[in-house]
Design brief:
heterodimer; A: alpha+beta; 8-stranded mixed β-sheet; 15 strands; 36% helix; B: mainly beta; 2% helix; globular
Chain lengths: 330, 189
């Protein structure tokens, strides 16, 4: 089976999954004059030459801001979008390209556990569709590279607090300020510079100590520190931890989801901080999207949750493809 | 010694890792979810031969270790060792299958290679990205077999068998990527 053709089917089945469950689809714009400024998510800049002037426009890094504005306007309880997403300043690898296809969905008045279930059901639905389409016996497992991946539900939650403790002997909750984590980094001989950020050390330890020990079977990585999750709601029992998760299968991050932070003042503050950082580091950046901030403000009395999932990566996994480039002709 | 940034990483170069010279076998860019950029590196310790993985922050700096490169002629294979002779001082060097991996299949007797020497001992060689070798044997009459993408198997002058397009004949010279063993192009016929 031609992987490009099967990829088109997987996109259609993803759409069908959400339509069948009563989600409203939104086609969202890709070019924006301003965007949310999340740390480490950099947009491509382009110039629109109008007859009177030149305007800077930016390609969206995900459909998130457009979807949240649509929820604020329509108050629909279930929305989704399948949209091309663009990320600048990231290296290419067999599982990542600057342009990729993302499905993002939100549920109003729902918690993030419901979103985890959605992601499980979406992947099982797609797997079943592939098996029927290729006239294979239905199966809840598949082979990816040399691994047999079992999709049996429920997929467990693995807490970053537990993983840091087990594989790195670090009490994550006690190293949430710069000095505490940088002390450990120094002892373990990680390079530190005057502009090194807490997030870089956190992720470097994660990649060196924890990533090699992750299981190949599907799981949800939870308990992300709030300080690196500005758009996720803070956990009500411990505000240093956010209600955020990542879905990981075969050690590949498929998506990121969370209960939404609607504290618009705090979010505006974090975007302003990020804007200052980008100015200091001379990194091209759109201005802050004020309409996005107002949309969140109007939703502040609601609980709502959502997730963005990479369709290209899902397709690679379920088709056992080694390189993301094999899904597109250029 | 020079300090280099992760953006200057190349397969095959030697860097200081935990105080030991180590060769970069492979590296890949990684961006953990909503995190900054990192470079995951596979490093082979020059002394112990042990392979370790380490992830650097993008922009980290490491010491590049200059190695002695000796132009040497490949002489012959002796059990699982490959014998080279230094072009200038006629010293003989021995590399094992473990030192050179799949490249061993593409060594041609009499050709000159760059052998990397540390304290008088050969430790590895510089791996060319492309090798040119003559086809000495080619199966004919497999036309119509399009399932494999119209390919056939030929034997190259070093004895290794590779897959090539149907138009390649005995006596042609082909370019091959020695890392993957895949056919690149016909050089001459």
């Amino acid at each position: 089976m031609n992987p490009i053709l099967l990829h088109q089917k997987i996109i259609s089945w993803t759409r069908a999954f959400f339509i069948n469950r009563g989600f409203e689809e939104f086609n969202v714009p890709l070019l924006h004059p301003s965007l949310p400024l999340e740390p480490n998510l950099y947009s491509f800049e382009t110039i629109h030459h109008s007859l009177q002037s030149k305007n800077r426009l930016y390609l969206s890094t995900s459909p998130e801001s457009s979807l949240k504005k649509n929820i604020a306007k329509t108050r629909l309880s279930k929305v989704f979008s399948i949209s091309h997403s663009f990320r600048d300043r990231e290296g290419e690898s067999p599982i990542h390209q600057q342009e990729f296809l993302m499905v993002e969905w939100y549920r109003l008045n729902a918690d993030y556990n419901q979103i985890m279930k959605d992601s499980q059901n979406l992947i099982l639905f797609t797997k079943k569709k592939i098996d029927s389409y290729l006239k294979r016996p239905l199966s809840a497992s598949f082979r990816f590279k040399s691994q047999n991946i079992d999709l049996s539900v429920p997929w467990p939650k693995l807490s970053l607090i537990d993983l840091f403790d087990k594989y790195s002997r670090i009490d994550l909750l006690s190293v949430l300020d710069n000095n505490a984590l940088f002390d450990i980094a120094q002892k373990r001989k990680y390079a530190l510079f005057s502009n090194t950020r807490w997030e870089e050390i956190f992720n470097q330890i994660y990649l060196n100590d924890i990533f090699p020990n992750l299981p190949f079977s599907p799981f949800f990585l939870t308990d992300f520190p709030s300080r690196i999750s500005p758009l996720a709601r803070k956990n009500k029992n411990n505000t240093h931890i956010s209600d955020r998760f990542e879905l990981i299968i075969a050690k590949i991050e498929l998506g990121n989801g969370n209960a939404e932070n609607t504290d618009s003042d705090a979010i505006h503050k974090s975007f302003s901080k990020e804007q200052e950082f980008r100015q200091k580091e001379k990194i091209i950046s759109p201005t802050i999207d004020d309409n996005f901030i107002s949309a969140l403000k109007s939703l502040s009395s609601h609980t709502f949750s959502g997730m963005g999932l990479g369709i290209d990566r899902l397709s690679m996994l379920l088709q056992n493809i080694n390189h993301i480039k094999d899904l597109y002709i250029r | 010694m020079t300090r280099i940034s992760t953006s200057e990483f190349q397969k095959g170069i030697f860097i200081d890792y935990n105080g030991s010279p180590s060769q970069i076998m492979d590296f890949q860019f990684v961006n953990p979810g909503k995190g900054s950029a990192f470079v995951r590196t596979k490093l082979k310790n020059l002394k112990t031969g042990k392979v370790a993985e380490f992830t650097y922050k993008s922009g980290d700096k490491v010491e590049e270790i200059p190695m002695e490169v000796h132009e040497s002629q490949y002489l012959y294979k002796e059990v699982d060792n490959y014998i080279f002779m230094d072009k200038f001082n006629y010293e003989q060097y021995r590399l094992s299958k473990n030192d050179i991996g799949a490249y061993a299949n593409f060594l041609k007797e009499g050709d000159i290679y760059q052998v990397i020497v540390d304290q008088g001992q050969a430790v590895t060689m510089r791996f060319p990205k492309k090798v040119r070798l003559k086809v000495i044997e080619s199966e004919e009459g497999v036309a119509g077999n399009t399932v494999t993408g119209a390919k056939k198997t030929v034997t190259l002058e070093t004895g290794v068998k590779i897959n090539v397009p149907l138009f390649i004949k005995t006596g042609d010279t082909v370019a091959v990527d020695p890392e993957t063993g895949s056919y690149l192009e016909r050089v001459s016929s």
